[in-house]
Amino acid sequence: MILIGFSLGILTNLMPLRAEEESKHNKLPDITLENVNGESFNLTKVNELTLLFFWLPQSDSCLIQLSRLQEFINNNDINILAIAIGDIKQNELLEVKTQLKLEFPLLIDRKAKLSQKFKLATIPTTFIYDPQANDLDTIIGTYKTTKIDKKLNN
After folding, report:
1. For 9-44, what is each residue's pLDDT tens digit?
2. CA torsion sign, 135 to 16 to 122 to 116?
3. For a disulfide at 62, which of 18, 55, 81, 137, Cβ 3.0-4.6 Å?
4. With a threshold of 0.70, does the pTM exceed it?
C-alpha cells in the first residue's frame, strides 16, 4: 500500500505531456531499465514499431490492459515493452508475467527516470513509438486494442 502511494505521489507531481513538448521526445531517451531477470535494457536499442506501456502492478486496470496487449500482439506484428514504475521486486513482475502468460518484456523504471522524461501524469499510459517516422503518439488510460489499430492506420 505504501508503494502505491509513493508511486502515485511521484506521478501526480509530474506535468502531463503537452503537444508542443511531445516533439522533443520523438527519439527514445538514453535510459537503461532492468528486466524481470535483472538484465539491462537500453531504450536506444528500440528500432522497430513499439508500444511503451507504463503501468503499476497493483492496478487492476493495468493488469487488464496487459492481457489486452498480449491478445493484440498475438494477431499483430508490433513490439511491446511493459514498463512498471517504482521500486518493484522482480519476482512480483515474474508472477504477473506467468499468470497473464505475457510474451513481451516487462521492464522496471525503479526511480521513475523514464516516466519523468515523458512527463507521465496518468497510469496506465501507452506511447506508440515509430522510429522510421520519428513519431511518438500517446494513449492515456485503459482502452480496447482497436484504438491502437486506428492510430497505427492513420
Report:
1. 444 344 344 433 443 445 789 999 999 999 999 999
2. positive
3. 55
4. yes
Cα gap 1→134, rounded to integer Å: 39
Question: What does the pLDDT look like over 29-38, one tens digit per residue?
Answer: 999 999 999 9
d(CA 136, CA 127): 6
Q: 3-state DSSP call for residue 143? A: coil
- Bridge partners for 83 per DSSP: 54, 107
Q: Please name each of the domains of the chain with its CATH number.
A: 2-152 (3.40.30.10)
Q: In whole angstroms, how far apart are CA 134 and each of 23, 68, 70, 106?
A: 9, 26, 25, 24
Residue type, 78: I
Q: Do 51 and 80 form a contact (C-beta atoms < 8 A)?
A: yes
Strand partners, 136: 129
**Of residues 138, 135, 111, the one with CA closest to residue 123:** 138
Q: Chain centroid to CA 94: how far? A: 16
